Predict the structure.
Amino acid sequence: MSAASNLKSFANAISTCAEDIDALTSNHSDPYLFEKNSKHWDFLQTHGFIYHCGDSYYKGTPSLYELVANLGMRSTMRRVAPDINDWYETLETDIEHMAEATSVGDENSRKNHLQRIDYHVALMINSLEKEVLDIEYSINSKLGKMESLKAKVNENKRLISRTHLFVVKLSSLKMDRLIPYANKDFQLRTMLLMNMSPRISEYSYRLSSALPRLEKMLYQSQQKTKETEKIWALYRHFESSKQCLQDDFSDEEIQESIFNSAMPLIMSASLDSNKCEDKEIISIAENLKRRMEKDTSLLTENIEKTKYIDTKDDTVDFVEPVLYPYFIDFIKTLSKKPCSAMEFWDKQSSNYSGRSWLMWLTLEVDKHKGLSSESLYLKTAPRCANQSIYDLKVCVTNGS
Amino acid sequence: MLREILEALINQEFICEISNPRALDQLKKESVQKYINDSLNPYGRQLTNQDNRLFYASYTDELTKKDRREIKINLENTRDNIEPIIHFLILIMKINESDITLQVGDIIKQSDLLYRIENNSSFEDGLKKVVNQKIFKSIKAGASNGDRLENILSGIERLGYIKLENVDSRIYRVTGKMDYYHKVIDFIIENESILLDEEVSTADQQEMLL
């Protein structure tokens, strides 16, 4: 039979007996009772995948187990690792035998051993190639989709120790011991020094460079685990009706904290000078207004000075002049029907956030005598002394 | 572009790969960072860089009285938003059957969430719990799960933690501000001495031994 027809028969046998093979390999010790498709089982037995152990009972050979393990490799990421030390020992023994055969002039024995060496080298290179590709695939796919982050962390740890083991084993190979033999035989030199040695170095390098990437991935997963743990911890904290950040922090503590993110700058620009006691703020607000009137803001000046070209119109449109037309529309809308600031804003299409609109509006309303505002809190939570404003109700008391 | 970056920063926006990738690319350049800093400094602001993944404006060391007041307001606002977002994140983890919280760049498909909520009464209860948090707009008593979910997602989007990427399909993406949120949580955990999972069990064991 040709190799192709053998492969077809093999595929047929595997396909027909897939369920039985699965059941058989799931149980390593018990013989499996075969009941049907004897033709396929005979084929598998003939080619060394199963062996007969009385009546209709069969057991799987190591080849069958390895086949099943290799097929499941992508999903489980587990496979029997080639044992580098054993392999190397066998290789050395074969080389020594070959050298002996050469010295006594036994050409047949020399050829046999050379063939075995060739097989071992090819086997090792293929196994290592698969191993390296697997590890690189795991890194590139970030370990693929797994059932949980915990499983991912465990798999990552396993891969690190496995890769590390390979690196150590490869670096401990005493390749120089093979050189004297290789120098005496051209074919052996081609196999060992021109084929195997550079490939081993390459794999060793690729495995070594995979280690920091695996460690980085593990670190990131552990960070994510930590973040999630903190979310759950805080959830438990709130579930037990506890509050947080109620203490008074010193200015320095707050300044250096994560909460030091600046409010929209327009807050400063919109401050009513008469109501503000901070001279520096008044000065900033006045300067800003003056600049806006002249249409020569500091921002525009800076932009002109730099090498970066802004393709947009250079007119300064701070939030205030941009929002002012909305303000006019809002007041007009109010005079027709009651409407909260956010209800109005949701109907507008503006790049500015509702938050900016609220902040600006809160200050703007104060500047107009005929207007008054009332902050709205959607839900009043008694635990918070200082509520955030989530909406604003504006009343026209005397015309604006 | 620089003007766009400055306007975003003075408008309290957080610039990240999701919210404004072009601006982020620019901000990764040291020359641009210097320029932006120079432009913000006269206003008492500086550029804050979180691992070159997130940029926002913060106050410089020369704080005015108003700056201090605004930082405190920011703390109070952020504090008030913490609990609702925690509830939201936990709900999403439960719905997705995931042991990992939302990460920057993660996609949230409103229709997928709604489908799972509609098919699980405990998710439905969780949704009601989240929507009742004060930062979300009030919603009618008889509102549908779809309305509730939309209300929550819009609320979270308003706070800048997610961005609506596809209006028609209602697909959101988690923004870099989520990294900022995690830093806030770190601050709270540290300041309130809240125990994590492992620490809780260790503390329990120690208590039992005593």
In short: Chain B touches chain A through 81 residues (CB under 8 Å). Chain B has a mean pLDDT of 85. The first strand of chain B starts at residue 15 and ends at 16. The beta strands of chain B are 15-16, 45-50, 54-59, 107-109, 162-166, 171-174.
